[in-house]
Amino acid sequence: MEATKEKIRHLLKEKRAILLAHNYVLPEVQDVADLCGDSLELSIKAAATDAEVIVFCGVHFMAETASILSPEKTVLLPVPEAGCPMADMVTVEGLAARKAELPGVPVVTYVNSSAAVKALSDVCCTSANVVAVVNSLDADEVLMTPDRNLAQYAASKTDKTIHLWEGYCPFHNTLTAEKALAVKAAHPGSIFMAHPECPPDLLAVADVVTSTSGMLRYAKESPATTFIIGTEVGILHPLSQQNPEKTFIAASLEMTCLDMKRIRLSDIVSCLETFHGEIKVPEEIRIPALSAVQKMISMV
Ligand code: 13P
Ligand code: SF4
Predict the structure, then answer these.
(1) Predicted confidence band at 300 (pLDDT cuts at 50, 70, 90)?
(2) Fold adopted by 2-83+260-281
(3) Can you identify the CATH homologous superfamily of domain 172-256?
(4) How many whole angstroms separate alpha carbon 251 and alpha carbon 226?
(5) Residue 43 has pLDDT above 90, yes or no
(6) For FRET with 7, which of 44, 106, 140, 168 sits at 20 to 30 Å CA-CA?
(7) What DSSP string describes 63-126?
C-alpha cells in the first residue's frame, strides 16, 4: 500500500494535480490526499487551488461542483460511476414542475444535487451553512431540495415556511432515535453527534447536530472523551486519527455509503496515468449553477 501511495504522490507532482478527499472515503484514500474536508470546504478549496488538475475522491456531484467553480482546470473523478442516491432524487423536470406550482418562491438546493438542478436553483447550501443560507433570503417561503431531513432541520431553526422535497440519504435516514439512545446509554457520559441528513426525531435526541467537519472541530475542542457518531462511518477515521486519546463509536454500521467507498488507491493511479473520468459541466448549465454556488460561498 505504501508503494502505491508513493506512486500517487509522484504522479500528482508530475501532472500538477491536487488530490481532494471527502471525510467519508476509504481511510487510505484520505491519508494520501492533499486536503480532506466536508463538502463546503472541498468546494472552496477546489476553487482556490492553482493546480491544473483536481482529482476528486468523493462522488459525482462534488466533482461537478469543482468543475463549476474551476472550468479552466481538469477535474477527474477516479470512479466516474460514484454517485449519490439522494442527488438522484431530484430531476430538472421535477424541479421545474414544482417551481411552477410555487411562483416567486426561492429554491435552496443542497450541494448533494446535479449541476443541472443547481442551475435551476437560486442558491445552494451545505449541511454546514443551511440555516445561514435560508435566513439570508429576503422571502417568507423557501423551497428546499432534495433532502427533506435537512429541510426540516432548517425549518426548526427559522421562522420561514419551508416547502420540502421528498428526498433523503438512504444511509442517514436509517438511523433511529431508539438505536442511537441505546448506544449512548451503553456509554455513560458520551456525546452523541448527528448529521442533519438524519431524521428529525433522531436529531431531537442528539447533543450536537453538525456537518462532518463540524464533528471534527467539536471532538477536538470538547473535554468529553467518548463520542457516538451519527453519520457515515468514514468519518471515524479522521476523528480517531486527530484525537488518538478519545473514543469514537458508530451509532450504526448500516450508515456505510457504498458510493463513497468506491474509489481505491489503484483507481487513483490509473486515473492519473490516463486522465479518464473527466467531469466537465457544459457552459449553459455551468453559468447558472455557478451563480447558485457563488451566492452560497460569498456568505461563508
Ligand atoms: P458534509 O460533508 O457536508 O457534512 O456532507 C455529508 C454528505 O452526505 C456528503 O455526501
Ligand atoms: Fe449521498 Fe448519503 Fe452517500 Fe452522502 S452519504 S453521498 S448523501 S448517499
Answers:
(1) low
(2) Rossmann fold (3.40.50)
(3) NadA-like (3.40.50.10800)
(4) 12
(5) no
(6) 44
(7) HHHHHHH-TTSEEE-SSTT---TTGGG--HHHHHHHHHHSTT--EEEESSS-HHHHHTSSEEE-
Q: Is the per-residue pLDDT at 251 higher than 80?
A: yes
Task: Answer yes or no: is pLDDT of 132 > 80.
Answer: yes
| Every domain of the chain and the residues it spans | 2-83+260-281, 87-168, 172-256
The model's pTM is 0.94
Q: Which of 136, 170, 167 is nearest to 152 (CA)?
A: 167
Count of CB atoms situated within 10 Å of the CB of 263: 25
Q: Find the residues whose C-beta lies inside 6 A of ligand 2.
A: 59, 84-86, 112, 169-172, 197, 232, 257, 259-260
pLDDT at res. 249: 97
Atom of ligand 2 nearest to the CA of 257: 3
Instruction: Domain 87-168: state its class.
Output: alpha beta
Summarised one tens digit per residue, pLDDT across range 205-222 is 999 999 998 999 999 999
